Records
---
Amino acid sequence: MIHDLYEVIHRRRDVRGEFTGEPVPDDVLDRVLSAAHAAPSVGLSQPWDFVIVRSDDVRKSFHQHVHAERETFAASLTAEAARRFARIKIDGVLESSLSIVVTYDASRGGPAVLGRHAIADAGLYSSCLAIQNLWLAATAEGLGIGWVSFYREEFLRELLGIPDGVRPVAWLCAGPVTHLERVPDLERHGWRQRRPLREAVHADRWGGS
C-alpha cells in the first residue's frame, strides 16, 4: 500500500499531448472529486468548488485565450528561450475529455476561520491541497491531469460566471491518456532541470547542513 502511494506520486505528470479524448466514467470522476473534497483545509473551511467543463464552446473560448497569453509570454523571451518554448505544448484543453476548474472562496467558513488569522493565504493553500489530492487520485485511476496556467483570472471568472470574491485557482484538463511520460515535459524539452533534493533541505535554519 505504501509502495503504491509513492509510485503514484512519482508517476504523476502534467499532461499536455497524451489525452485520448475518451470519456471519463461517472463513477471514476466521482471518486476523484471525492478525494479532492477529502483534502485538509484551514479551520475545516473547505474553501474550494469544482466546475466541471464539458462544453466545446466554452473550451474553445478558453483555448483561444490561452494561446493569446502564450504569445504574450513568448514575446517576453530571448530568442534562444523562445525557440525552446516553441517546442513545448502548454495545454490539452481541446484534446482532453473534460476540464475541472478549482476555485477558492475566502468567505467560506465565516469571518473568523480558525487558523487563518495570521496567514491569510492558508485558505488558498487549502484549495491547492485539494488539487493535489485530485491529481494523485486521477493518476491512480489511470487518468491524466494538465494544469493550465496561461490565463487571466478575470477572463476565466467571466467565462464561467464565477462570483466576485471567488478566485479561479486552476484549470485542470482531465481524461484518459495513452501513457504518462517518464520524464516531465519541461525537462525533456530542455526548459529546466529538476534540482536534487539535497539542495532543498536545510538543517535547523536556512543554509544549515
---
Amino acid sequence: MQIDDVDQRIIASLVADARASYADIGARVSLSAPAVKRRVDRLRSAGVIRGFTAVIDPAAVGWTTEAFVELFCAGRTTPAQIAVAVRRLPEVVGAYTVSGEADALVHLRAADIAHLEDALERLRAQPFVTSTRSTIVLSRLVDSPTVVAAPS
C-alpha cells in the first residue's frame, strides 16, 4: 500500500490524539472530514492502523517500577513459545526477540520491587527459561508513540 504525505500527517495526528475528530484532522491536513474518514478507513483496512487505544500514565495507576529482562532459553525454544508465555503476565509491556547472547528481551512494569520480583519469578518459572538478566529502569529519557517517518 502506498502511504503518501497526507496519510503520514493523518497518522501523526491520530498518534498525537486518537480522539481527534475527522474535521479537526481535516483542518490540519487540508481535507474535508469525509475525505479523512475515507483515508482512515483505507489505512485500517490495509492494516496500517491496527486500532485505537488509551495511553495510560503508569505512575497514575501506581505501576512505576520497570525492568528490561534478558531471557536465555533452552534448546530450540521458538519465538511463538516465548510470546505465549509472556502474554500471560500482566506486567509485560513488550517482548522482543533480539540478536546477541539473549534469546529475548522482555519489558516489565510493576507497582514496586516486590511486585517486580514476583513477576520475574513467574517469568523464570517458564519451562524453557534457563536464566535471566535484569536491568531496572531509573528514569525514562524518551517515551514517544510510534510515528511513521515521512518518505524522503
---
Amino acid sequence: MDIEERLQCIAEQPRAYVQGTVEFVNDEWIFFDEEAEEASLVEEMAEQGIELFRYGHWLSGQWQETGMIATDLGIFPLTNGDRIRFRKRLTYAYRQWLASLPDPSFFQFVQWLNSLGFSLYDCLYCYNGLLFAKSTGVNFIIYDNTEQIGSVHHYYERGQASSDRFEITLNNGERAICTQIG
C-alpha cells in the first residue's frame, strides 16, 4: 500500500490542516493562516488541493485560476471571508520514512503515536537513514503537538527479516516503547 492509500485508511489526524480565511486584494486571493497569522497566495497553497467550508462541511476541491473551487458538488466562487484549509505537507524525508514502514508497523506506529497525543502532522524534524540505503540503524523524529514535545527513535532492520522498534521520550521525562517485529 502506498503512502497516499495509507493516509486515507487512518482516522483523520489532529492538526493535519492549515486553515484560515481569504480576501481578494490587488487582484489576487490571499490566504490568512489563523494559527500562524501569516498571509500567502491561495494559488501557491492550493497545489495539492483545497477545502472550502460550505453548508457546515468541508468540501474538497481543486483551485481554479478564476477564484473558483471545483468540487464534486459543483463550482463555488470564493468570497471575502470564506474559510478554507489545506492539508499540511509532510517533508520529503518524513514522507519517505512513513512509506518505508511495513504496513503492520505503520498502522501500529500511528495508533501508538495518536494514543500519546501526537498526530502524524506534528512532525518538526525527521532524520531518515533509510534514504541512504542503510539496512540497519536508527531514525530520529521530533514531534510537537503544542502541549508537549516527543523525540522518537526508530530502531530498524531491513533484509530477509524486518523489525521496527519505536522509543519516545517526552519533554516531561516520560518514556514509552512500541515494537513491531517481522
